[in-house]
Amino acid sequence: MAADRVDALVIFGATGDLAKLETFPALVGLVERGVLDVPVIGVANSGWGVDRFREYAAASLRHNDIDPGSAPAQKLLGLLRYVDGDLDDDATYAAMSTAMGDGPRALFYLEVPPFLFGRIAQGISAAERAAEARVMVEKPFGSDRDSARALDDTMHRFFPEDAIYRVDHWLGLDPLNDVIVARFANSIFEPLLNRDHVASIQITMAEAFDVADRGRFYDRTGAIRDVVQNHMLQVLASVIADPPDRSGPDSWLDAKSRVISALRPLTADDVVRGQYEGYRDVAGVDPLSTVETYVAVRLAVDSWRWAGVPILIRAGKTMPVTATEVSIRFRPVPFDVFGVGPIRIANVLRFRIWPDAEIGLTLAGKKPGAGREPQLQELVFAQHTGSDMRPYDRLIGAALNGQRLLFARQDTVEAAWRVVDPVLGDAVPVHRYPRGSWGPKEADSLLPDGDSWHDPAG
Length: 458
What we know:
It comes from Pseudonocardia asaccharolytica DSM 44247 = NBRC 16224. Belongs to the glucose-6-phosphate dehydrogenase family. By secondary structure, the protein is of the alpha/beta class. 31% of the residues lie in helices and 21% in strands. It folds into 2 domains: 8-138, NAD(P)-binding Rossmann-like Domain (Rossmann fold); 171-389 and 409-446, 2-Layer Sandwich (Dihydrodipicolinate Reductase, domain 2), CATH 3.30.360. The chain has 12 helices and 15 strands.
């Protein structure tokens, strides 16, 4: 499909929480930069009219500290249209088509649960709007490999793969794109990112908060499905995938698919699950729940480049801080030429992904004074706070222009499910851990001998 603009943006579920928290603020940014200047049609079954819909959008902007009276906001509000109707009724899609006008190409954004994807796709097709469509769909894209394949089969009845834009909002984070730029814009890093030089890789996604009012959702999901299968494996692929060639965006998507496909499926011995104390008291949570709010996994890559390098990922709630970092620990020098002791210093390349952007490189230099005892110091490249755009601003803008680089492809999604499928459910016991801790101590058993977890700073 050609990378060109659409004639309309149609949002299903446009009166929901995602639209309120993310979509409308992102659309203002797109209008401000001249990326969005086509009708934006909300479709929902809320009993609203266009005036109420515009009021909802304006309230969303105020909630996100955006003045609805500003010029970009006023232009966005003027672009808004609204179709109210039952998503099971073909008349709703006929009304949608009328609101779209004569332009043949639209971006359909499905901000709805996956069980509605098939019916909406059928409705778009019945309205004869599928031929040149692009379709953005939100995660979760399946709950395991089989359900992901079934969902793919349903979508592919109406849309080709290159028309489907699977959203993983982490792919829209500016700091994650910093990782890619740092890797491929600096000639010093890429020759070192392989089994000959890297001792281990760790990714920590720590959240200081709990599940709050999402107990019912979270108790059906858990940390593996919620963040490891998607966000964390996408982060890992951005760190270790082979460089793309110059043939186009598919080259990078191919590279990420290959490296995720090369990950061995997890076994019970590779996983430690945890649940914070008090989780079972949350509204909507089963009083006997064994769902994990913390998980640590040890991964292995069956590739020439990464064979034998231990990769550890941990993610959890009620941690000491909210931060996500990648830590690449390099092999130490072969022996101590200075005779200062048995400890050999290792260099570390650190990428901070959230909440801010930072790249750190730990080097050894001489400690001031007599002798040659080395000391460690981290060189830090920090992005200015507030200089990046919203993830959904970047993602919706890319989809409007037919740019698939920031989206998850079918083969990559299914490969990621293949990795985690064996340890879903109660295949691994769950350990309690105190709020404010780094999770259950049992996770230390996954570490290589002599290694420790990298704890990101708050």
